[in-house]
Amino acid sequence: MSNTDFTKEYFSMKEEHAIEYAKTVLKFFDESAELNCKEIGDGNLNYVFKVFDEKSGKSVIIKQAGPVARISDEFKLSPDRNRIESEILKIQGTLAPGLVPEVYKYDSIMNCCSMEDLSDHTILRTALLEHKEFPLLADHITTFLVNTLLLTTDVVMEHKEKKELVKTFINPELCEISEDLVYTEPFYDCERNDIFEATKAFAKELLWDDKKFILETAKLKFEFMTNAQCLIHGDLHSGSIFVAENSTKVIDPEFAFYGPAGYDIGNVVAHCIFALANGNATITEEKEKKEYISWLEETIANVIDMFKEKFNKVWEEKATERVAKYEGFKEYYLNGVLRDTAAVTGLELARRIIGLAHVKDITSIQDETKRAEAEKFCLNVAKELIMNRENMLEGKNYLELIEAFKK
Question: Annotated Gene Ontology MF terms (predicted)?
Answer without folding.
Answer: ATP binding; S-methyl-5-thioribose kinase activity
